[in-house]
Amino acid sequence: MTSHEIYHEKQVRELCALHALNNLFQSRDAFTKSELDFICHSLSPDNWINPHKSVLGLGNYDINVIMKALQARGCETIWFDKRRDPSCLNLENINGYILNVPTDYKISFITLPLHRRHWITIREINGLFYNLDSKLDSPQIIGRGRDLLNYLRDELDCKDKELFLVVTDEVEKTQSWLQDQASYSNNSNSDKRDAEVVHLKDIISDDFTNPIASEKSKECNHLL
After folding, report:
1. How far is Cα 62 from Cα 49, in angstroms, rounded to an integer?
2. Helix (H, G, I), strand (E, B) or coil at 92
3. How far is CA 134 from CA 12, 13, 76, 106, 176, in A?
4. Could you read off the pLDDT of 17-51 as tens digits, one per residue?
5. CA–CA separation, 119 vs 36, rounded Å?
6. Mean pLDDT of the chain, nearest integer
7. Catalytic center at which residues (predicted)?
8. Rounded mean pLDDT of 120-132?
9. Residue from 173, 162, 208 nearest 76 by CA
């Protein structure tokens, strides 16, 4: 598979979260804007202004929406504590990586003073890791495992950037996304944690049912 055959969804409006999800699953049909809007409504059904997306309806979805969308596909989202080195990660058991970075919001050539965040997918395809940023003209080759670790170190050196790991339910339960589970356990008594599993039940209600996603609950197992 060449870079021309890799599915790479490019930026439209503020839909980088949608692009990141579709680039992760390598399909334009993995998710739709209407599905993400449905998730937003389910997260805050009683809010006149939904806090999980742009008030203009252009996108700008937050992490809650991404987490819920991935969970509907049988995936879990893990926040990585960048105080630790990425070498603790077991790359073979991680389906993909989503970076959250600050970005400017522009209309034509005018940069507006709006606080925005941008979502970027990184994943392995045929033995190579690619940056599938929707703002790029084409997929950018990062390289192999060691190259990815160096890339993540450079990215996470910025305090305004965050990394989320996308794994299967089973990998999340066994914490096998870590190289050494004994040393990097989330249950350690240490004051520092290498990563934190972000549980949806801690931030949203469990009464969400999405008929569109119910038939695709195992798709995370087929990402790689």
Report:
1. 14
2. helix
3. 9, 11, 22, 15, 29
4. 889 999 999 988 888 888 888 887 787 766 666 55
5. 14
6. 77
7. 16, 118, 133
8. 95
9. 173
DSSP assignment, residue 202? G
Q: Which of 88, 133, 194, 220 is catalytic?
A: 133
Catalytic (active site) residue 118: yes
Amino acid at 32: T
Place of tokens 């599993």: 197
pTM: 0.76
CATH topology for 16-222 is: Cathepsin B; Chain A (3.90.70)
d(CA 113, CA 105): 7
133 is catalytic: yes
Q: For residue range 140-175, what is the model confidence (pLDDT) as tens digits?
A: 999 999 999 999 999 998 888 999 999 999 999 999
